Each structure stands twice: as C-alpha cells, then as structure tokens.
Amino acid sequence: MELKRIGFIGTGIMGEAMAAHLMEAGYEVSVYNRTKAKADRLVEKGAKWCEDPQKCAEDQDVVISIVGYPRDVEEVYLGSQGILKGAKKGAYLIDMTTSSPALAERIFKEAEKLGFHSMDAPVTGGDTGAKAGTLTILAGGRKEDFDAVLPVFQAMGKNIRYMGPAGAGQKTKLCNQIAIAGALSGACEALTYARACGLEVDQVLEAISSGAAGSFQLSNVAAKGAGGDWAPGFMLKHFIKDMKLSRESSNSCGLSLDVLRQVLKEAESLEQQGQGDLGTQTLLNYYWDWSK
Amino acid sequence: MELKRIGFIGTGIMGEAMAAHLMEAGYEVSVYNRTKAKADRLVEKGAKWCEDPQKCAEDQDVVISIVGYPRDVEEVYLGSQGILKGAKKGAYLIDMTTSSPALAERIFKEAEKLGFHSMDAPVTGGDTGAKAGTLTILAGGRKEDFDAVLPVFQAMGKNIRYMGPAGAGQKTKLCNQIAIAGALSGACEALTYARACGLEVDQVLEAISSGAAGSFQLSNVAAKGAGGDWAPGFMLKHFIKDMKLSRESSNSCGLSLDVLRQVLKEAESLEQQGQGDLGTQTLLNYYWDWSK
User: What does DSSP assign to residue B88?
Assistant: First the structure.
C-alpha cells in the first residue's frame, strides 16, 4: 500500500517544519493545532485545516502527532475527539512527542484492538534539525510497521533508528535526556569552578574540550551560557518535562538515578526563579550569578 | 640558557614514559622513585639513579615530579630530603602530579624565596598519551618560565597550554575532572536505564552518541563497561583522589558542586566494595549489577 495522505497534529516550531518537509516530499497533508494561527503558514502552502484531532485522522494513511506533554498526547489519541475515534482501519498512527513510555505502550494496545498500526517515534536534533530535515528519529513499535512508514520518516530526518517494541522509541529518547543531564551539569560545574577560581573560561574550554572531558553539552551548551548567551536552543522548562519523564520511567524499572534527580532539582529551582524559558545553559546560574 | 640536565622524580607508568621521551629528545636525565625497581628500565637506558629527591635535584637545570598524592608532592618538595634542599639557583621546578592548587601556590612562594622558578603542570591523556608523547599539559606559573621550559614540555606532550599564574594548571585539570564526573555519571545512568528497561545497549549507543548526549565518557568509558570490560583506562581510586581535590578547591572558592559531590559519594561506595582498582566505568555498577 502506498502511503499518500497524512494527518498532522501539532504544528509548533518542530511540527511546522516537519509537516512542511512532508508536503515538499509530495504527501497530501491535513493539519490540526490547538492554536489555529500556528497552522496558518502550512495552510497557505496547501495543507488542509481540520477542526479537531478526530477529523484530522479521518481517511488518512498516516497520522502523526507532536504535541507538548503526555497529557496532550493522551487527549489527542484517547479523548472524545481523538485520533482513535477518527482513524480508518489499517492507518499508521505515529506519536513523535517526547512522552511517557508507559503511555506509548497503552496507546499501542488500544490502537491494536481497533485495527491500527501504532508507533512511538520521538526525535532529537531540535528546531534546527527539524528545519534542516536532519532529525534523529527513535522509533518503537512493530518492525514491519517501521519498514512501512520509513519513507515518511526519511522525509523528516536523517538518523532513523528502529529501537524495539512499543515504548522503545520513548525509552531511547529518555536515555538521551538522562545522559544530557549529567553531561550538562558536569560542564556547568566545571565552568563555574573555572570562573570562580579566576581562570579564563575561554582558555579552559580550549584546553579541555577535545579530551576525556569533552561533550556536546560542554562545547555547545554550557560554553554558550558562559559567553553570556542565554537564548534557548532547548528551553529549560522542556528539559524539566523530559527529566520528570525519565525519573518516572526509571523508577518504574526499579532504578533511582541520583544525578538525574539532583539536576532536576536544580532545574526546578531555576524555573521557580522565572528562568524556564531560557536555554538549558542557564543551569550555570544555579551555582553562580554569571551576570556579575 | 640552554636546558640540558633534568632530574625526574616519580617513574610510575606515566613518569617512566615521560622520562623516556625526554631522554630520546637528548636531555641528560637523572631519576628517583620511592620504589627503585620501577626506575630500572630507565637506568638501563642510561638515566642516572639518585637516592632521594634532594640528590635528584642537585645541579639540574630542570626538576620534574609526577608522584601520587598531594602529601607525596609536599614530601618531595618540602621534606627533609626534598627538591628545595637540593636544587641549584635558577633551576626550573615543575610538578606534573595532579595535586592541590593551594599546595602549588605554596610551593611557588617557597621556591621563589629560594631563587627557583616553580610551575604546576598536570597532564591529561593517561598512560596512552604518556607513551605516545601526546599528553595535554596544563601549566601554571610565570609566563616567561613557561616559555623557557616549552621545549621540555614539547618532548612529552602535544596540546601544551599556559593557563595563568601558579595553581592555574592544577585548577584547569580539576575543571577537566569535574566535567568528567558529570558526563560519566550521566552516561552510566543512561546506559543503566537502557539495560534495566529492556533496550539493546549497543543500539542505544549507536542512536544517541553523535548528538546532544554525545561525550567522550559515553562513547569511550561507559560503553566499555556496558560491553563487560572493567579494565582501567583510569582507575576509580585515582578519580576519587581527583574528585576530592576538586571538592576541596571548589569549596575554598565558595562553591558547593552538588553533582560532583554525588558522584564522589557513589565512587567511594564502590571503592569500599573493593572496586578501586577497576576503571571508572565501574560507576555503572552503582545502580545495577552488570554481571547479571
């Protein structure tokens, strides 16, 4: 079966860029977003506007969602005007939100009962990756469903990975966020110590970035903050959401990840000070007032 | 003044390789080590054996030390048969041990009073870097002294950095170790979660290593442990020493680095279980019994 028609739910910064790539690749795209104005540019380009997720799912070969929080995923899938109400038998339903593995498993089971193919496929690479069409896509679900929708993924990303059964995409994304929490905090602590003890931060970065201390977070995130740039590549409030999901999911596997918990605690205290919309590099400010 | 004669104190795995490179570069090298047998190979190659640090420092243009702990540095420099007793006026004294910034400053002052040039110049790159002559050397002290001994450093390393006044080399090395603590713990928590929740660890590494979660510690250290290899690139007990120095020095700058403290606590609990001689990747075992 050739997949031609796609319903796309959630046209925020990420979703808008992803849906645009699908249209460029020749798919017929219908869109829904809670705030209609954010879908205007896609509609101008020829996407069909739909009034709710249910209508956006009707008669589509594939339905893609990328929304905010797990509660939004739940509403969009299982709500009274949700995807599962509208989708046609045999449709591929793909949630690309970073969300709960347990919810992905639940949706998979519900969808399967109704004769749909369900996948979780969160992404990494941020808005830059979404715009460039170079996202990493981490997919969970049935392997044959992954193979069937691979051309759809290829229109939006470059590094496309099948990770295992339903929930495995979400779990892999959370691995990514857990590793980031540690690397980011280590980088922020190191640069804060450098500054507090009188070293030149730029020289320290040059000296240590390419060795055993090296990380993307040190060179590209903490370094940005140390240079006085607090603009978000990735907003602190979204990172908090992901760390909470990571804590919840790791707890449910019987783990207590103490560094993750510590970094989450620090991030929440900064959010309470009104820094949630800054980039994650604001973690630097937990230890030291970098505006000094 | 051409520097020709070097006294080298501490011929462990690192020191032996570094002294050998100095001999290959044409320097006349005298050696001292607490355990004499560890200097045998260098003596066979033509190094002159000395009975104590004082004698090893006598009549040398440069004296280099790379020993174990700050207390060893103190003994070797300030002890009754120490370097400061033996060195000739105008000699360059370089401590390459990873040690306390405060001690480096103290030695600098003492050495200066006596008419010596003192530097702290700890290294990164491990025994592999020492053997290959590709160490990173992080130097603190007077800039003119750094310029004078640069050819000596170039015989042992590749990435050679002047970081600032006395203690700045040690402080930069501690920045490196603080960043490692965070990155390593994040990587270990991520891979432990991956394994505990049923993902294929190798596939997760492939999927996330090249993006925002990427780090040397994830790809080269934690990954090694997850593959069942616990052999030390860097021994846990030495990392504990460095983290304690980092904690002490950051506290003295008025900082409390909570992720560093957490990782140190975890590492110490593993050391108490007899894992101090394993590689730092054994941090994986803090959360999960990887032998299962």
Answer: P
Q: How many CB atoms lie within 10 A of CB A291?
A: 7
> Is the full-model pTM beyond 0.95?
yes
* Contact state of B182 with A171 under an 8 Å Cβ cutoff: no
Tokens of A213: 């201390």
CB crowding B119-158: b at 16 or more within 10 Å, else e: bbbbbbbbeebbbebebbbbbbbbeebbebbeebbebbbe
**Is A228 buried (19+), middle (13-18) or exposed (0-12) by CB count in 10 A?**
exposed
Question: Is any Cβ of chain B less than 8 angstroms from the Cβ of A136?
Answer: yes
Q: Is A253 on the interface with B (CB under 8 A)?
A: yes
Alpha helix (H) ranges present in A123-277?
126-132, 143-154, 168-196, 201-208, 216, 223-226, 236-252, 258-272
Contact yes or no for A175 and B192 at CB 8 A: no
Cβ atoms within 10 Å, residue B277: 14
Q: Enter the ipTM.
A: 0.97
* Residues of chain B contacting residue A205, judged by C-beta atoms under 8 Å apart: none
DSSP A196-228: HTT--HHHHHHHHTTSTT-BHIIIIIIHHHHTT
The predicted structure's pLDDT at residue A1: 65
pLDDT score at B208: 97
Query: How many contacts (CB atoms, under 8 Å) link A and B?
Result: 268
Residue B144 in 3-state DSSP? helix
- B208 and A CB contact within 8 Å: yes
A102 touches chain B (CB under 8 A): no
- Which of the residues A48, A173, A265, A292 is marked catalytic? A173
- Report helix angle B258-272 to A168-196, nearest 10: 110
Contacts of A180 in chain B (CB under 8 A): 186, 212-213
Q: Are A190 and B178 in contact (CB under 8 A)?
A: yes
- Residue (of A41, A33, A38, A25) closest to A7 by Cα position: A33
The residue in chain A having the minimum alpha-carbon distance to the alpha carbon of residue B162 is: A203
Residues 6+ apart with CB under 8 A from B116: B84, B87, B89, B90, B91, B92, B93
Q: Beta-carbon neighbour count of residue A206 at 10 Å?
A: 12
CA nearest to B80, candidates B52, B59, B102: B52
Cβ–Cβ < 8 Å for A287, A188 = yes
Mean pLDDT, 10 residues at a time, chain B of 292 residues: 93 97 98 97 98 98 97 98 98 98 98 98 94 97 98 97 98 98 98 98 97 97 97 96 98 97 98 97 95 82
A250 has a chain B CB within 8 A of its CB: yes
Quote the minimal CA–CA distance from B105 to chain A in Å. Answer: 13
Please tell me which of the candidates B179, B190, B199 has its beta carbon nearest to residue A208. Answer: B179
Whether B196 has its CB under 8 Å from any CB of chain A: the answer is yes
Contact indicator for B288, B192 with CB cutoff of 8 Å: yes
State the CB neighbour count (10 A cutoff) for residue A200: 15
